[in-house]
Amino acid sequence: MYPLYQIRIMKQIGQLIGYILFFTITGFGQTSNSSNPNQGFKVIPLGVKGGLDESNLSAYLVAANGNDQFICLDAGTIYKGLEMAMDKKLFNESNPSIVQQKHINSYFISHAHLDHTAGLIMNSPNDVSKKLYGLPSVLEVFKKNYFTWSAWANFGNEGEVPVLKKYTYTPLVAKQEFEVEGTGLFVTPFILSHVNPYESTAFLVRNQSSYLLYLGDTGADSVEQSTQLLALWKTIAPLISKGQLKAIFIEVSFDNSVPAKSLYGHLNPALLMHELEKLNNLASGNLHKTPIYITHLKPCTDCEKNIQAQIQMSNQMGLKIHYPSQATKIDLY
Ligand SMILES: [Zn+2]
Ligand SMILES: [Zn+2]
Q1: Domain covering 33-332, topology
Q2: Residue 26's pLDDT band (cuts 50, 70, 90)
Q3: Which of 233, 235, 292, 331 is the most exposed place for a label (fewest CB within 10 A)?
Q4: Which ligand is closest in space to the CA of residue 251?
Q5: How far is the CA of 217 from the centre of ligand 2 (A)?
Q6: Would you tell me the crossing angle of helices 228-241 and 269-282 to the nearest 10 degrees?
Q7: Which ligand is located closest to the Cα atom of residue 219?
């Protein structure tokens, strides 16, 4: 027979072993997701530029790892990007329209400018029914300017009759996370300023405990007389510190030779770095852990080369800067 106090100690040791086993098996409390193959994201850029080349304009497919249902963040170019992705064996289907029908679950439009919407509009006849997410101000443009019968057939579910009801306008509410059915993804929209008072949107996408941030076109707070970016940085800074934010996609449209008054709601390398310094400070100097993908470069003779050189020169924080390339898959864990 054991004395009572020894039995109590043995019970407590047993409980402790139980806890250790539970935390080890479930991975509960882990900050790194590397051991779970279904954490993180795969991203397939269908288009990456901010102008001119209509076959390569902003559109990013994002899926949870382990899932083949993508959401499409902006939709400047669809067909050409899917065709190139098929050439690279990223999809095993017979043509780009089938990929669009079967693998694009829904569209998230940051703002209604044509370089973010043309691919969706042009390919709408071959698409199937799905949701079109946007802030009310963005959906208004589809209803009043694009799907109107005068500009294009009305593939929306509201507006000028007859309505073909292919796309269901689904208004977003800023800062409210919701689940995107069938994708394993959750999205939180944030309002951006894109030539004040015009709105654009950032999408914070979540798969389990990993996050990805995509920003549509945006100006710097200092130029836009706005605090939208600062508010966004405050929200995502803790995710950077904890290693949960797997990537930031952010625009730089012009090089530093373009003066603030001519930026029209866009960033240049100097303004980008100023904004990222604010974010880095809020994230206790941890921003170098999160890869930054620079999007939406507007082509001209030397613009893209200049933008890349100016970002590299001013990268005092040791940030991991990348440039997405059309139909080149990005794996984020
Ligand atoms: Zn744009
Ligand atoms: Zn724009």
Answers
A1: Metallo-beta-lactamase; Chain A (3.60.15)
A2: very low
A3: 331
A4: 1
A5: 5
A6: 50
A7: 2
Least confident stretch, 23-37, 197-211, 252-266, 275-289: 23-37
Average pLDDT of the chain, as a whole number? 92
Tell me which residue has tokens 């001013």: 314
Q: How far is the CA of 6 from the centre of ligand 2 (A)?
A: 71
Q: Which ligand is nearest to the CA of 138?
A: 2
**Cα 110 to ligand 1 centroid, rounded to whole Å:** 9
**pLDDT tens by residue, 200-232:** 999 999 999 999 999 999 999 999 999 999 999
Q: Which helix (H) or strand (E) holds 332?
A: strand 330-332
Cβ-proximal residues to 221 (8 Å cutoff; 6+ apart), any chain = 193, 227, 228, 229, 230, 275
Amino acid at 255: D
Alpha helices (H) in the chain, listed in sequence order? 4-26, 79-87, 96-103, 118-123, 136-141, 221-224, 228-241, 269-282, 303-313
pLDDT at position 3 over 70 = no
State the angle between helix axes of 269-282 and 303-313 in degrees (0 to 180), rounded to the nearest 10. 40
pTM of the model: 0.89
10 Cα to the center of ligand 1, angstroms: 66
Residues present in the chain in total? 333
Q: Map tokens 């990805």 to a residue.
A: 212
